[in-house]
Write a structure and sequence with these properties.
This protein has 333 residues and is α/β, with parallel strands linked by helices. The protein has 13 helices and 11 strands.
Length: 333
């Protein structure tokens, strides 16, 4: 620097040089710390209910490890379509996440004449953290006490048997339709406006049987109001050791299905960001508080990393899509 330059000018020169260097680092693609600000977790369900409790358990555990708050943003509507829309509008930097379930990612997009989103192209799985089986139950007042009783009832009645379903094109609907084929009889599927409506309909004697996740109907099973008939599992459930599996009842191993929950980001999220979310989730699997929260909701801690979550989504799509076409669940335009 030329002689006679004042100390103040020297200081300004150093600051300018440092600023240019920082700009160069940013332009060169050096990763910024993640997360660098509070995060948003988009939920496709309204507040309350089992999924909301499970979501909050993951959120509480993850934010303690992220070092930044996570704000839960409920965006119900369209069984996930509204939530995915909100996620797709956010930057693909990991600061906006979505709690993604099996139904929202592998069934819902395929029941629209024009697919609202492509789960394999628009979403990037970060980790699976919980799963739950499905259970077929009968109301005690129906007189149905076993899978064999259900077969007899379905075959003996000319119009078959009424089967409750939460809504059209739900996992319970599709699994029930698959079971009807094995029953060798007929059935009428009765939408109940959700699982809560199904519980009320069963208790009231309006429908005799319905498929649920165990967490929804555990109290009714324990009280004797509902009788479990079949579990959509490969092995008998420890909580229901006397209930046959779907393989034992039907011989059809393809009907072994379970619901699951995980965290998804917008497609294009950088790999280091996904690795961070995955690491928080893995750590939560070893947290006694997290395990206890899931146990209270009667779901199982179930961890899968990003690549295996993508494989799970593909396998589920391969199962559900043919049934959606077979049952003609896509409305005609």
């Amino acid at each position: 620097m030329a002689a006679g330059v004042t100390p103040r000018l020297r200081s300004l020169w150093r600051l300018a040089t440092l600023a240019m260097a920082c700009t160069g680092w940013a332009a060169s693609g050096v990763a910024q710390p993640f997360p660098s600000r509070p995060m948003t977790l988009v939920s496709p369900v309204p507040p309350g209910g089992a999924v909301d409790r499970i979501t909050r358990a993951w959120m509480d555990c993850a934010q303690a490890r992220a070092g930044q708050p996570i704000v839960l943003h409920h965006r119900p509507g369209g069984n996930g379509v509204v939530a995915v829309g909100a996620l797709r509008q956010a930057p693909a930097d990991g600061h906006t996440l979505m709690v993604a379930g099996m139904s929202q990612t592998t069934i819902v997009p395929f029941v629209f004449p024009k697919r609202p989103f492509d789960p394999e192209k628009d979403l990037q799985g970060a980790a699976v953290f919980a799963s739950s089986p499905y259970l077929l139950v009968a109301s005690a007042q129906s007189g149905i006490r076993s899978w064999q009783d259900l077969q007899v009832r379905a075959r003996s009645q000319p119009r078959g048997i009424d089967v409750g379903i939460p809504n059209i094109a739900t996992p319970a609907h599709i699994l029930s339709a698959a079971l009807v084929e094995h029953l060798g009889g007929k059935a009428t599927f009765v939408p109940t406006g959700g699982e809560a409506g199904g519980v009320t309909a069963l208790i009231g004697g309006h429908i005799p049987v319905m498929v649920f996740v165990p967490g929804t109907i555990a109290a009714q099973v324990e009280s004797g109001q509902f009788v479990p008939l079949l579990a959509f599992t490969a092995r008998r459930l420890s909580k229901f050791p006397h209930v046959p599996t779907v393989v034992e009842a039907t011989g059809d191993a393809s009907l072994v299905r379970q619901g699951w929950l995980g965290i998804a980001t917008r497609s294009g999220t950088p790999a280091p960001v996904l690795a961070s979310i995955d690491a928080w989730t893995r750590d939560c699997m070893n947290s006694h508080e997290f395990q206890a929260a899931l146990a209270t909701a009667l779901v199982t801690p179930h961890y899968l990393p990003p690549a295996e979550m993508a494989d799970l989504i593909r396998r589920d799509i391969d199962f559900w899509s043919p049934w959606i076409a077979r049952l003609e669940l896509v409305p005609r335009e």
